[in-house]
Amino acid sequence: MRRVTTVVLSVVCVTLLGVVTNVATGALPDGWTPHLWLAWPALAVVVVAVMVVEIRRARESAPVTGVAAAHARRVLLDRVRRYWISSVLDRSLHQEARIQLGVTASADDRRYPWTLRATHRDGFTGVLDQGASVAGLFERLDRAVVILGAPGSGKTTTLLELARELVDAAGRDPDAPIPVVLNLSSWATRRLPLEQWLAAELTERYGIPSRQATAWIEAGAVLPLLDGLDEVVAARRDECAAAIAVFHARQPLTPIAVCCRESEYRELRAGLPVYGTVTIQPLTRPQIERYLDRSGPALAGLRAALAADEGLWEFTGSPLLLAIMGLAYADGPGPTDGPGGRRTRLFARYVETMLRHRPHPAYRPEQAVQYLTVLGHQLRKRQQTIFVLDLVAPTWSPFWAGRSADLLSRALASVAVGGVVTLLGAALIGWPGLVVGLAAATLTLLALVRDEYDDLELIASRERRPEDRRPMRVNWVTDTADELRDVAGNVGVGWAAVAAALLVGLAFGLTDGLRGWPGLLADFAHWFGMLLATLLALAFTRAMLFDLYLIGPPGGAPRREIPSPALRQRLRFAATGAPLLGVVTGTLGGLPVGLARTGADGLRYGAVVGAFAASYLLVAVALGPLTEQWLVRRRLARDGVVPRPLRPFLDYAVQCLFLRDVGDGYIFVHRELLEFFADRLTKSDAQALPRP
To answer: How far is CA 309 from the centre of its chain?
Structure first.
């Protein structure tokens, strides 16, 4: 029905386009001649309407199929392989430690030293031997499993080993489902049904069009590999598990794998209704000793440290800590006492060793530790595991009033709008244009202060996005109308718009030679045109912000820092919407003036108020937050909180085996390392950061 309505509207608009064209170019009665200029603004409005209708019809077309779908499949497989296999699995701490230490693999070595024990709900139990594959075990458990283990036991690595084999299989078989690795920690932000969350993550993390992502999920063409159920905030973990269970009940034939710490999984009110469980067994002392013996002189320092401090053996059961110990004690045993427990001293020794072995001229070791401390603290505070550049906010600095950059960016944005309108107004309509520019600056500042202005905290958190409206389509006409009612009902903004428009009308009245009713009508036309343009600009901008909340940030962003990924998307939206808003508001604002005075006066006045509306949308949606982002980065670097630019330091942390790059974001090599850095900056000593 919607497509039929769209076609009808398209036909009507095309018909009107022909009529208006004939009116604008044909012969008319003499009484119509003074109003001939009205046909051209009407022609522009109809052209814009036809464009909007055609765009909506294109968006409502069927999901991508055929060649385009095959291309999207190849793109997704390639990104999963690059983001997780090449960047994370092949550069896992276990593998990097072997390379760094020069450990050579023997003929009977497995890729990883731990043992997997599988249990099927039909009673089957078994152990993954050296000749078996993780994908084979996945098949034996009917392709629906939960992977359990202790912290640092190798759960994520096992999941990624499974992803590697499934990606290779999907590359050979076009009918095989596409394995997609996702971290569940972001689920608690919006708490959507799992199929909607999966579609959103495919769009945000992998850059897949939302229609294609939704179609794949509904068809069971995506194989979710979900890491970090234990990383979901504790208050929402049972709810997340229930969402996974509902998804699996609706699509029982869709394969799925979920990772979780064993202790947190046992605390769930109800386990996941999967077919099998894979539990990673702790390393036994004979396994560890065999691993150490096979490594030869490469792990001589670790063997010496274990001999010097018998208590270190308690950490060797974790493959993660075993790899960290190999790197930390590469130069031999360290001090056996110091601040914190053995685990804290182990991580501190690891960080010290890696920074000493891989120095960087731009970052002193103490600076690097401080930057990583801030990063770990902020990620834990936000309950996130993946860091993206949009997360940087003024509250990161304990020395800075958080709203100062926000307020300064609003002031600069308002001055910019007023300056643009003033220059254009003075050039087109004389000194009353100065009054229009002053009114534009005042209204912009008032709207940004009193209305919902999107600062960096709100853009980064995305918690204000409506959780239950994700699948809704944005209807620009109805949404703008709804926002228009809200704006007009706002006492402060509404009356300020009326007063500012009244001042504009009075300014034109003082320079107008008309007297009596014609003069009053001209003053009213200027007032009404300014008021209408203001209200429509505010309403359309709020509707655009609502649309941005629904679609979420883009995936696969370039490596530039400023503007950050979410702001780059805002710039594209604003650059598209501003000309349309300018034409519409300019036409509606100039029509009353053209009717009351002359067509030329209407065109000039419409150009000024249209420029005001377009420039307001640009600064409110993108340029204001972009200015704030620049101010924040500059101040945080001056306070010594994070460096500027930040990305080169993050890449250096990847080289030091502290972080991994995943798509357009970064994650710590393990959550325990994140916790180590986060614990260095607690709420009680947040002021401990040194002043630069």
So the answer is: 46
**CB contact at 8 A, 606 and 427:** no
Question: Under the phi-then-psi rule, with left for phi > 0, alpha for psi from -120 to 50, and beta for the rest, what region is 337?
Answer: beta
Indicate the residue type of 441. A
Side chain identity at 631, as an amino acid letter? L
How many residues in total does the chain contain?
692
Residues in the chain predicted with pLDDT less than 70, given as ranges, are 1-67, 94-113, 128-132, 334-340, 400-403, 451-482, 484-485, 487-492, 512-519, 549-560, 663-664, 682-692
Residues 532 and 589: beta-carbon distance below 8 Å: yes
CB burial of 119-151 (b: ≥16 within 10 Å; e: otherwise) equals: bbeeeeeeebeeeeebbebbebbebbbbbbbbb
The residue among 444, 418, 430, 416 whose CA lies nearest residue 534 is 444
Residues 410, 627: contact at Cβ < 8 Å? no
Nearest to residue 146, comparing CAs of 231, 229, 38, 89? Answer: 229
CB atoms within 10 A of CB 492: 12
Separation CA 422–CA 424 (nearest Å): 6
Identify the pLDDT of residue 255. 94
CB 203 within 8 A of CB 213: yes
CB 585 within 8 A of CB 536: yes
pLDDT for res 22: 55
Question: For strand 276-281 and strand 115-120, is the pairing parallel, antiparallel, or unpaired?
Answer: antiparallel
Residue 1, pLDDT score? 41
Distance, in Å, from the CA atom of 461 to the CA atom of 391, rounded to the nearest integer, reads: 8
Cβ–Cβ < 8 Å for 182, 194: no
